[in-house]
Amino acid sequence: MEKITFDYSKAAGFISDEEVTYMSKLVEDAKKQLLDRNGAGNDFLGWLDLPVDYDKEEFTRIKKAAEKIQGDSEVLIVIGIGGSYLGARAAIEFLRHGFYNNVSKEIRKTPEIYYCGNSISGTYLQGLIDVVGDRDFSVNIISKSGTTTEPAIAFRIFKEMLEKKYGKAEAAKRIYATTDKAKGALKNLATEEGYETFVVPDDVGGRFSVLTAVGLLPIAVSGADIDKLMEGAAEGRKLALEQKFEENDALKYAALRNILLRKGKSVEILANYEPSLHYVSEWWKQLYGESEGKDQKGLFPASVDLTTDLHSMGQFIQDGSRIMFETVMNVEKSRCEVTIQKEDVDLDGLNYLAGKTMDFVNKSAMNGTILAHTDGNVPNFMVKIPEQNEFYLGELFYFFEFACGVSGYLLGINPFNQPGVESYKKNMFALLGKPGYEDAREALLNRLK
Ligand SMILES: O=P(O)(O)OC[C@H]1O[C@H](O)[C@H](O)[C@@H](O)[C@@H]1O
């Protein structure tokens, strides 16, 4: 069977066999530390076994809730930020129609899905309220801590809207809360109001939670097959856990990116040639950025959508500061074939492409770009995705998560915490006058004068 594979053959000129041999030992050690659960942050390793060891009763409830939402709602509002947002969106955009919310209901068959609570923009939220209009809708509020400001504000607004429209009791039946099993403001609210709740396990951090109810409920509502997603992840787990370095693509990816980091390539650009992978990159950026960017270390995870960004960022990648390498996610088999037709008069000069598919052109652009960037001293890696379906996406999620854990241990940091994100929150709370933050307030206001 085909699988997600990692190919570094095009970067051979930048990396010696000795370096790979040396690094292979280090990644095997890091892998052991991960699996022995004796490294930093080892109380957040629940994601390691999730694909084979998850709450089956809850999984069934997720499917039931998804069916109910599909039956009684034209729109689902998904409220969450960071790890409580990006995985679901990445999956739905990767798996479902490229214009999911815009195609006719006959094609889509499932509710429109919109996201909020991922910014504090009132303009965005009002726009979304206008989109919902007077249509039937449900809300999935997702927050592991249950206290994050952005989703909490958005939820307050949509909760009020639901209650006005349906009354408190019926509104409660349209609210699904995914949060901690016992603590946090959202859990308390859900218990008080009688919302159906789903659990983010204690030992699974937000950015590793896509295969819990956090990702699974919205993904199931979109009509994607969550059984297949879990099967793919289980296959990814098997490959990552059981294969030796030579056959282990996740380990090779972790090793090779760290070889380049140690040579001064401090930026990794994740590139795609399919717009529907944009949010996979966003999910990946949180995964790697929050996991590795600490103790003054780490690769800066960036991303580009190609060929779009070849007409903007392409200049920098080809010719600017030589600080980066590129990892291309290559969907090997395109979902749709669009063939370019011959025209009698070749006014646009495109007849040389007549009979060719757009995917052929896209892949030629990709291959040409890989060689051009390599010539410009940007080493290129490739992650091959056989096709865009649930199975391979599950495998891809696990591939990146496992490589991230290994890579973090290789860096000598705790890949499973995120102490740095608290700094802006403290300042924001002080400026907002949140009780308990009075001391810092005046000093901050002075600095802003
Ligand atoms: O799920 P929540 O607790 O609301 O957290 C949502 C996100 O925001 C936090 O500030 C963290 O930086 C992220 O790691 C997390 O995924």
Automatic annotation (TrEMBL):
EC number: 5.3.1.9
Broad class of where this protein is predominantly found: cytoplasm
Superkingdom to which the source organism belongs: Bacteria
Subcellular location: Cytoplasm
Pathway(s) served: Carbohydrate degradation; glycolysis; D-glyceraldehyde 3-phosphate and glycerone phosphate from D-glucose: step 2/4; Carbohydrate biosynthesis; gluconeogenesis
Catalytic activity: alpha-D-glucose 6-phosphate = beta-D-fructose 6-phosphate
Gene Ontology MF annotations: glucose-6-phosphate isomerase activity
Pfam families recorded: PGI
SUPFAM superfamilies for the chain: SIS domain
Keyword Isomerase listed: yes
InterPro entries cross-referenced by the UniProt entry: G6P_Isomerase, Phosphoglucose_isomerase_CS, SIS_dom_sf, SIS_PGI_1, SIS_PGI_2
Record's keyword terms, sorted: Cytoplasm, Gluconeogenesis, Glycolysis, Isomerase
Keyword Isomerase part of the UniProt annotation: yes
Active site (UniProt): E290 (proton donor), K425
EC category: isomerase
UniProt similarity note: Belongs to the GPI family.
Function of the molecule: Catalyzes the reversible isomerization of glucose-6-phosphate to fructose-6-phosphate.
Protein name per its UniProtKB record: Glucose-6-phosphate isomerase
Lineage of producing organism: Bacteria, Bacillati, Bacillota, Clostridia, Lachnospirales
Gene designation per UniProt: pgi
